[in-house]
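Contributing new complexes? Match this layout with nicotinamide-adenine-dinucleotide.
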Amino acid sequence: MVKVPDTATPFFEYAPAPESRSIVDIKPSYGLFVDGEFVDGHGRSFKTISPSTEEVLAEVAEADEADVDLAVKAARRAYTRVWSRMPGSERAKYLFRIARIIQERGRELAVLESIDNGKPIKESRDVDVPTVAAHFFYYAGWADKLDHAGLGADPRPHGVAGQVIPWNFPLLMLAWKVAPALAAGNTVVLKPAETTPLTALLFAEICQQADLPPGVVNIVTGAGATGQAIVAHPDVDKVAFTGSTEVGKAIARTVAGTRKKVTLELGGKAANIVFDDAPVDQAVEGIVNGIFFNQGHVCCAGSRLLVQENVADEVLERLKRRMSTLRMGDPLDKNTDIGAINSGEQLKRIRELSEVGDAEGAERWEVACDLPTKGFWFPPTIFTGVSQAHRIAREEIFGPVLSVLTFRTPHEAVEKANNTPYGLSAGVWSDKGSRILWMANHLRAGVVWANTFNKFDPTSPFGGYKESGYGREGGLPGLAAYLKGADA
Ligand code: NAD
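Output block (do not edit by hand):
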């Protein structure tokens, strides 16, 4: 392990500042949320654990095909009898109510998210939960304006939406899916990821608190088989999936030849491109935010740093110094920058791909720090001497690992950035507006950030090209995806 540069030696130690977990009430076991009530599933149950301590948090029901069928039937009833008949202005009131309750219970949601997911409380508190509330507010505003949104003369909902989400932003991915679906008049059956079911179950309680009509939102927990049952159910009209490209392809095969509408938000391997005229310290903050935010468990993470050759040494030196000041540890500590890896399985994948990087001859540098003995941890890491052919330059690691490549000209930067099967996001750091616009026009990525990274806003569409999926979430295109004849 490389020694931390002297300049990074902290002037003072941070005293622990843990957020109290007494605000959350984690029950020993959870059922499924179907037709407005929590019910026992027919299947087995599974444990959800805290990734930072490996403590078992709760037993959660694993929905089988029969449970999914009951949830879809409840969603269909609610769609036919209540939700699709309700004026948009009334649907909007429910969405506004949900948004306000999310704000009121924001601390509880943030603490629970950090416990179940392992992400630092300052991220769940300052990014995830406020953005979740913002999505419900934003789509609430559209619910009574569908006829005037430029989405056709009489836009109609699809019916029942089956939604399957990953573990990296459990509540935020739920909001991206549920808010536009309900605003457009659909009802939903949603499955959270098996390692992070708790905030979706708390969201179910929020739906009860908001008096949402039974069956409009149904939450079924479980793993891949439960997700597969939702996707394959014949009475699901629209499938919305966020997760890995591999599972996305399987879903595309399942729905091929059916009348189902599909949006797929899949993996990424984004290039974060730093030119020699970029303000270096600002770019370094952007690199850190791009790859170490949420432990790098971000589909649009800037996991490939492309830095102009003549400033590469300087950028790397300052990056290492900055990385050495990152604080890693208890996700509930308000000083923590880097939390726990979400699962043992994900940690294994990150380790394996990093070892491939070593074996292929890239040079590993990681922050010198003591890792907690319990839980799943991986230090912030960079690989230099990476070439385009290396697997760590091509495959999504989905962890706090940055692959560094260099370039000499804007054309070379574009060639290298686009040399990937993915196309979700990219970042450009430069003082020249004309160069940024030229780069944005040539990069094959759904989102291009300029002199910033990982910024999310409900008004802004998000989605990918190529193996990063199809369809858009967020903004008007995100609403169109839930309306007949108006797909983005
Ligand atoms: P994953 O594909 O393994 O799982 C995602 C969800 O799909 C989980 O709920 C899982 O239980 C379910 N699932 C698994 N097999 C299934 C099947 N055969 N049919 C239906 N559902 C199934 O992905 P993950 O490991 O949870 O998440 C990480 C991946 O998600 C990364 O590749 C990341 O890039 C991607 N992601 C993409 C976005 C985006 O917006 N593009 C956002 C977040 C994460």
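Reviewers usually confirm one structural detail per submission. For this one: Residues 1-8 have pLDDT under 50 and may be disordered.
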